Amino acid sequence: MVTDSLAGQEHDIGAAGCPERGKHGKLLRQRALMEAATAVFAEHGYDAATTRAVAERAGCSEGLIHRYFGSKRGLLLALLDEKAERFAEQMRAALPDRASLDEELAQLFLWPLESMWEQRDFMRVCVSRASIDPEVGHVIGHHLNARRVEVIAEKLRRHQAAGRVRSDVDIDAIAYAITGMNLTSGFFLQAVFDLDRDEVRRMTEQTARVIARGIAADCAGAPAGERDGGRKAD
Asked: The whole model's pTM is what?
C-alpha cells in the first residue's frame, strides 16, 4: 500500500516541483500528489477538481496519478488511508496524558473544534463523498475514525486503571460516542450549521463535564466499593 511506505517522508510541494527520480523519488511524488489533492479538493470540491489541476499543483505529470492511484477516486482513497496511518500519532502528540479525568475529557472534546475547523473544506469533500460512495465511507469509518476511537479508548483505560473511571464503564462505547460528538461539534455545528464558534465551545465544554461526571468512579452511579475513593458505602 502506498501509505505504508510514506510514513516519515516529508516533501515541500512548492516551487521545487515534482521530485526527481531516485531512491525515494516515487514515494515523494506520491506524497506530492496527495498533498496537492488535499488542497485542490478543498478549494474546488471533489466533483469540480480535476486530475490535471492536482498534477499542476504538485508539479508532476498527470499520467502519474493514473499510474500510482488509477483515478481521481483512487487518489482520494489513498489520501484518506495515508491520513489514517498518521492520525493516531498526531493525536497523541497533540493531546498529552492528563492527570485528571476532567482535564483529559476537556482536551478530547476541545481539540477537534480547532483541528476540524482548520480542515473544514477538505472534510466537506470527505463527508459528501462518504454519503454516496460506500468505499470512501468504509475507509473513513474503519480506518480514520477507528484511529480516533483507539486513542480515546487508550486514554480512558489509563484513567480506569488508575481508579478514576468506574470499572463497569464500557470504554469502547464511550470512545465511539465521543468521536460522534467530536464530528457533530467540530464539523457540523461550526462548518455546516454555522453556529457561533464561541457558543459551540461553551456547549462542548459543558458536554465534556457531563461525560466526566457520568463515568467518574465517585459518581452516584458507581458501584458501592468505588465511591468515595474506594471506601464502602455506609
From this structure: 0.83
